[in-house]
User: Fold this.
Amino acid sequence: MKIQLITFYLCLSFVAFFGCKKESGVLVFEDDPSEWSIDPSSYQHYMSVVAFASSSSDTSDILAAFHDNDLQGFTTGEVHQGRVIHFLLVYNNQTTGKIGFRLYQSGEDRVIGSVDSISFNSGAGLGTPDNPYEIEF
Assistant:
C-alpha cells in the first residue's frame, strides 16, 4: 500500500511538472520526438552511453536523455548481436547532474519514461556494445 501511494504521488508530480500520464504502469509523456533537436556546439561537456533499453525492439525507436526537463541528447537504435542498442552522447554545460531517460516507441507512437537515472560525468563512458548499460522502462 505504501509503495502504491508513493508511486501515485510520483506520477502526479510527473504530470504536474513534465506533462506525462501513467498507462498500464508506464509513464507516458506528451513529447513530440519530431521536435527533439540538439546543438552539440552549445554544450561544453559530454559523456557517452551505450545502452540497451528494455522496451526498445525497433531501430527506429529513439532513446533520449534529459536533465530536469531539458533534452540533453538522443539517438535511434542499432542492432548488435541480435538486439537493439543505442549509442548516445549526453551533453551538458555542467560537469555533474542527474540524467533521466525517455524512449520513443515508434511502433506505438508514444514516449515513455524510465525510473532509471545516471549521474552525468563529463568525459565518461558508460556501457559497451558487448555489455551495454541496461535501462528499464
